[in-house]
Amino acid sequence: MIPRAILTAAEMKAAEDATMASGVSVDQLMERAGRAAADIAWRMAGKAHVLVLCGPGNNGGDGYVVARLLAERGCEVQVAALADPATDAARNARAQWPGPVDAIGDARPAPMVVDALFGTGLARPLGADLSAALCDLVRKARHSLAVDLPSGIETDSGALLSPVPFFDATIALGSLKPAHLLQPAAGFMGMTLVGEIGIAAESALLEIGRPTLVPPLPSAHKYSRGYVLVAGGAMAGAASLAADAAIRAGAGYVALAGPEHGEGPLALVQRLAVDPRTLADLLADERVDVAVAGPGLGLNDKAEARLESVLAAGKRLVLDADALTLIAKRGAETLAGLDAPPILTPHEGEFARLFGDISGNKVERAREAARRSGSVIIYKGNDSVVASPDGRAAIAPPAPSWLATAGTGDVLTGIAAARYAATGDPFEAACEAVWLHGAAARMAGPFLIADDLIEALPRALAACL
Ligand SMILES: NC(=O)C1=CN([C@@H]2O[C@H](COP(=O)(O)OP(=O)(O)OC[C@H]3O[C@@H](n4cnc5c(N)ncnc54)[C@H](O)[C@@H]3O)[C@@H](O)[C@H]2O)[C@H](O)CC1
Ligand SMILES: [K+]
């Protein structure tokens, strides 16, 4: 699957300028944008009475186009504007709207509401009266569509600058923007569709899409499919979950090496490694592709020694949980010199421990963390962000909130290890793991527990063949 690009407001403006430099006018772009939005509105509500709310910028301009096109299809349309258009394109679009334009205060509730107040140009919160009116009108509508973005959202961070209602659908014009995937904004969009307006949308920031996996070659053997070694520690269950997930995610050979035998399928190889030196010996096996440390590792001296063995093994690494807490004490930049970039999978708390001083939006923070630590970062959450030290970054589609339960992170770690062993590319592996984890969660359904994710993994993987 070809991943979709995500453009910031500034990148969108640059892409728009480049398109115009090639001979397309802003009015043509606005006509395409309005047509794409009107088509969606028509499919959602047919001939229902429509209320179009227009702002002063080009988002409002899109709204006048929507109003004209829906009226041409026979809809009864009320247009309510916040202010007169402030751009030439929006003025032209308003001039082509043959009906009256009412003040926002005179907007009447309608079965279909189109929000064309503000898009990527929103610079500050909506006034309290305006956001209250928007919320009220959307709440009273049967269908609601946001043009480009719900008004009140900051494009690049996904922050809510003022209260925003829940929309049924949002049409992202030309390209996804970070707010279409980042929380809290993404939770207010409803179904998000990208409206094609003829802009070349290219970016180093991508949406994580369904991976394409290939079946093992006829010549495959267990080691060629990847050997993952999971270092266990104080809590056998967590390491077992990671190891079980790694073998279910397609690694050909998975060994669980801890101070006691763990759980898991019979296919899992249990190795007793009471002494950290035994762990080092197991890691010295040249067939080991990826080593995992963190889930259930513990935080005491023994855990430190085990982590030391893993870091010194010269293998590709996936580090999570307790390993991240231990690394935070010595500084994440100490990972920068490893032979291959490790994959780190911090949740919010672990990220703060590792990179507490980094500011900016979630994508900026993940990128800076990756650069500083020379690691691929899976910055987990409902809106997981993956960032690579080479500048590539990707945002996951919203994951089911049922994932908020013990052990699901350990499963993600195991999947990432299997994919890192298979691909050798930590960024690709991390993106694939995040997608598979989300897909398995959707398949496992409500009230899932971590074990259910592992059971659903083969079906999630099969969807990628
Ligand atoms: N990118 C494209 O290819 C196309 C995008 N289109 C649409 O245009 C908007 C972006 O338009 P822009 O004029 O830059 O910004 P906005 O319409 O979002 O708003 C800017 C406007 O509003 C004023 N303003 C900002 N914040 C506030 C506030 N809180 N209260 C009051 N006024 C505010 C600001 O000063 C400006 O006057 C994009 O999202 C698309 O919908 C085009 O259709 C063409 C193609
Ligand atoms: K809008």
TrEMBL record:
GO BP field: metabolite repair; nicotinamide nucleotide metabolic process
Keywords: ATP-binding, Isomerase, Lyase, Metal-binding, Multifunctional enzyme, NAD, NADP, Nucleotide-binding, Potassium
One example GO MF annotation: ADP-dependent NAD(P)H-hydrate dehydratase activity
CDD domains, per the entry: YXKO-related
Record's keyword annotation contains Protein biosynthesis: no
Domain YjeF N-terminal: 12-205
Record bears the keyword GTP-binding: no
Catalytic activity, EC: 4.2.1.136, 5.1.99.6
Positions bound to K(+): 59, 115, 151
Residues binding (6S)-NADPHX, per UniProt: 58-62, 119-125, 148, 238, 296, 347, 410
Residue stretches making up the YjeF C-terminal domain: 205-464
Swiss-Prot/TrEMBL catalytic activity: (6S)-NADHX + ADP = AMP + phosphate + NADH + H(+); (6S)-NADPHX + ADP = AMP + phosphate + NADPH + H(+); (6R)-NADPHX = (6S)-NADPHX; (6R)-NADHX = (6S)-NADHX
Entry's cofactor comment: Binds 1 potassium ion per subunit.
Residue numbers binding AMP: 380-384, 409
The protein's required cofactors: Mg(2+); K(+)
Subunit structure: Homotetramer.
Family label: In the N-terminal section; belongs to the NnrE/AIBP family. Belongs to the NnrE/AIBP family.
Function: Bifunctional enzyme that catalyzes the epimerization of the S- and R-forms of NAD(P)HX and the dehydration of the S-form of NAD(P)HX at the expense of ADP, which is converted to AMP. This allows the repair of both epimers of NAD(P)HX, a damaged form of NAD(P)H that is a result of enzymatic or heat-dependent hydration. Catalyzes the dehydration of the S-form of NAD(P)HX at the expense of ADP, which is converted to AMP. Together with NAD(P)HX epimerase, which catalyzes the epimerization of the S- and R-forms, the enzyme allows the repair of both epimers of NAD(P)HX, a damaged form of NAD(P)H that is a result of enzymatic or heat-dependent hydration.
Protein name, per record: Bifunctional NAD(P)H-hydrate repair enzyme
Organism: Parasphingopyxis marina
Gene: nnrE
